[in-house]
Please model this.
Amino acid sequence: MNLKYAVIGYGFIGRRHVKTLKSFAESDCVAVCDINPLRLKEVKELYPEIAVYDNADQLFDKTDVDGVIIAANNNQHKDLVIKAARAGKHIICEKPVAMSVRDLDEMVAEVEKAGVTFTVHQQRRFDKDFRSVKECYDQKMVGDIYIIKSSLYGFNGNMHDWHVFKEEGGGMLYDWGVHLIDQILYMVNSRLISVYADIRNVINKEVDDYFKIILRFENRVTAEIELGTYILSDRPNWFERHWYVGGNKGSMYADKFDPSGKIVRTTRLLENVPGDQEKSTASYGPTRSFGIPEPGLLIVEDIPQVDCEQMDYFTNYFKAIKGEEEFLVKIPEVRRVLSVMEACWKSARTMKSVDFE
Ligand SMILES: NC(=O)c1ccc[n+]([C@@H]2O[C@H](COP(=O)([O-])OP(=O)(O)OC[C@H]3O[C@@H](n4cnc5c(N)ncnc54)[C@H](O)[C@@H]3O)[C@@H](O)[C@H]2O)c1
Model:
């Protein structure tokens, strides 16, 4: 099977999608559509065999493709998904699939009418750092988990192009929040009881560049997601990615997308004996409660290393197209993520937590 695809939107991620479609035996990229002539010129130079179009209607009129990857600015997704559905094409849409739950529902109605496949490029479900934490969660490596912290900090305050315009779907909640929330919901299989969010425009006029989100689940897990693009630092890297997982049998920390970190357990906890000053001071350190455990009490293990890569998204996709597997990313899941994002905005506005499911 060699399915013919078109990529709509040939920017940062669209370029990658063309290469991906050409690299899989199941697919080819035969057309690209972009409203920017310079981008089309680039396609013509790099891939003379690919047909180029400057609008999606023409693409659907003139090209016989089986499917599309929609990789245009966020505010274009709705219109392009509806057009692709009406043209009877398989659809992969970039994240965030839509700007609102209501828009997504309209898109889904068209997709169902057309009977085409529809999924979303939430490929960060295959990030190694996330998979390592998910393995720890699934295997209960630190016991009953009460907190998961997922954070991402950028140092130079730089948001670019349309990402700084609200109307185009800019802002960090749409850009990264959608991945970070998706990872947590995909991992924590429980009813989400409440959502709290603090969302700020620290240096950007129109859009958010910092957020902290707290998700409280029925299974007693609390997830905290924090992102800032303007966390200035003198460190050499341009970003920091961190995870912390706390359970009643130990803790896990993981840093960077290609993660390094440890799982730390103790052989014996400092016992809490009321009035027993000796026991407390036996733990040395700056304060008694936060004292360092005595030597020999900690067991330290490497975090699990999971063999995966973002490209696994497409491996699943092509198996699913052939009916051999289910699509990993399902529309009700991305709808739930969008609903959480809407609850985040409500919480940020009211400064209160929002009841969820
Ligand atoms: N899954 C991921 O990890 C990931 C990473 C980056 C971007 N994205 C998503 O991909 C999409 C594009 O982001 P980007 O960073 O590549 O942006 P970009 O600005 O680099 O590219 C977008 C391209 O779409 C074109 N475009 C805009 N409207 C169009 C229309 N109606 N028809 C055809 N082309 C149109 C623009 O001219 C531009 O060339 C966004 O939805 C973004 O959230 C996803």
